[in-house]
Design goal:
It contains six helices and eight strands, in the order ααααααββββββββ. It is an alpha+beta fold. The protein has two domains: 102 residues, no CATH class; 75 residues, Maltose phosphorylase, domain 3, CATH 2.60.420.10. The protein has a four-stranded mixed β-sheet. It has a four-stranded antiparallel β-sheet with strand order 3-4-5-8, with helices on one face. A hairpin with a 2-residue loop joins β4 and β5.
């Protein structure tokens, strides 16, 4: 958390940010990719790793199945996020349906599929997906006042395909393969 929160807030000067990220990544590796940020900074951990070019490190944390992790909860038949990482039954566990570690779901939409609003009502939004090397595809849909925004990407035959559905009345700024394009409503396909 000592590295994550200042990076997320932009308090660390750019000249020193890479070193702070390096310290963070080395700490995660030394701790076998256990989440050590606590409930307040975990939500920002994945954003920071992704923004600073560590998407595979973020994916390693998300998919880890050993305690403590979100995957550990799934391995123990959780269908919701627990208040604590430990497998405890009442009265040791206060809640088996708790929102604080669930804040990581934002990362799935905003980074993995890259859907982020740029204007009120989603009239303008960005699609800037990130592609972990161990993940072959992702799909997300966000309901907006203008209709659903759908993003799907997949790696196939040495190429990455990106599909974006923009609702009527909206425009999307698609950042894909180093190119930025603004597209109107409709269904769009990109390939690299």
């Amino acid at each position: 958390a000592c590295q994550v929160f200042p990076l997320w807030l932009g308090l660390i000067p750019e000249a020193h940010a890479a070193k702070a990220v390096d310290v963070l990544v080395r700490d995660l590796a030394a701790n076998q990719y256990r989440i050590t940020t606590g409930n307040l900074c975990t939500r920002y951990l994945f954003d920071v790793l992704t923004e600073y070019g560590q998407i595979d490190c973020a994916w390693e944390l998300i998919t880890r199945e050993e305690y403590p992790s979100l995957g550990y909860m799934i391995q123990n038949e959780a269908t919701t996020i627990w208040e604590r990482f430990e497998l405890k039954k009442n009265p040791g566990m206060n809640s088996h349906n708790h929102p604080m570690y669930g804040a990581v779901d934002y990362w799935f939409y905003a980074y993995l599929c890259g859907i982020r609003p740029n204007a009120p009502g989603w009239k303008e939004f960005t699609v800037k997906p990130y592609f972990p090397s161990k993940l072959l595809s992702a799909h997300a849909q966000v309901e907006t006042p203008l209709g659903p925004i759908t993003v799907k990407w997949l790696k196939q035959y040495g190429k990455t395909q990106l599909y974006v559905s923009v609702p009527f009345g909206a425009t999307a700024r698609v950042d894909f393969n180093g190119k930025i394009q603004t597209v109107p409503c409709g269904f769009h396909h990109f390939c690299c």
